[in-house]
Amino acid sequence: MRPPCLLLGACSAFSAVGFGAFGAHALKSVLAPEMLIVYQTGVTYQMWHALGLMVLALLSSSDSRSKLLDWVGWLMFAGIVIFSGSLYVLTIANLRWLGMLTPIGGMAFLSAWLLLIIYAVKNKPLR
What we know:
Layout: H1 5-25, H2 33-62, H3 67-93, H4 102-122
């Protein structure tokens, strides 16, 4: 199944702005400064990968049959959910054990970027 990268990216960017505003206003006086930094890391990574998904949607429109690009999209979205999501819940609910899930999301991000590198090498334009 082809990932709906534009929709996933736009929804992720929208929610990143909301999470960022929530962190800046509602959580600023509730969380310890180091936990606010952890929360903000989740927001930052979510926004960058949301933008990555939207760029991927443009790239996929010119190569709609690439399974590699499909994997990139799903891995980026999984990274957003697992990496950023675990950081949000970890900081808001003070569930420190969720920190064990965060590296899984990070590996999803790294895997997505590695597959995009492989795609770029395999599909370099002719000069």
